[in-house]
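Continuing the batch. This is chain 6 of the set; chains 1 through 5 are on the previous pages. Same settings as before, nothing changed between runs. Recording input and output for traceability.
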Amino acid sequence: QVHFVESGGGLVQPGGSLRLSCAASGLTFSTYTMGWYRQAPGKGRENVAVITSRGDVTNYAVSVKGRFTISRDNARNTVYLQMNSLKSADTAVYYCNAVSPPGFLASWGQGTQVTVSS
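Output for chain 6:
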């Protein structure tokens, strides 16, 4: 069974940084494009960043471009999201999943809460 466990969230002041991790199991991780997604209170889930299976191509939402960096370690079945210059608008629950068109490979996990507040 495919399973994703997100971690690394927390409370941070505006301008601060966090590094999220997503550990994957139950899939051939190195063959999937992976993505980070987020859902703020009262809003729908939105794309944040994606990275191809070999890590050679990345794509970011306009709102996070230049501040967030997605990366992966296929040997550790883990995808990361380095978040810098955090803003209050980044407050959300962050999730990861494998891209499997037309949707995603697995059900959404618990996610990790990121709160940006002074």
